[in-house]
Amino acid sequence: MTIVATLARRLTPRRRRDRAPATGRRRRSGDRLIAVLAVLTVLAAGAAGTAWYAQRQAQARDTAVRQALATATPAAKAIFSYDYRNFDASVSNGRAFVTGAFADEYAETTAALRSTAIAEQAVVLAEVSASGVIEAEPDRVELLVYLNQYRRNANTDGEKVDQNRVVLELRRVGAEWKVARATAI
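User: That's the sequence. What structure does it adopt?
Assistant: Structure tokens below.
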């Protein structure tokens, strides 16, 4: 054999050995790249999902606020108004806007008030002057309601005005919003 053939034989295995680790390194760096891309894809999908969920919650909260604010004025007027001449109808109108334990409390309060309202010939008209959101969730909204009650009865001269501030908690009941709590402040 010639010197060239001997050298070629000796160099060929080394080249193959040299190439094998290089190919393995390339394969490992390719595997790392695929793993990094997979992790980035999962993180991007997670971020997109979180953003989508947050946006949906914000939209649901905004819808709840609009609906609760639209309900608050007629609800407050009905709950906090009464007329001795048709007291039961006034209470029935208010009862349409309440739910839960507050419905029971409203029934007890108006039952206790009935005889006094009739005896004093009391007429109370509630008007909402303003309202604002305290806290909102998709199924529960808490509002601050500025409520003026114009009242007259047989014991007073003319009309008196009571300026009240009431925190109303409204809850979604089916497709409607009802007052679940009313707290004077």
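The chain has a mean pLDDT of 89.
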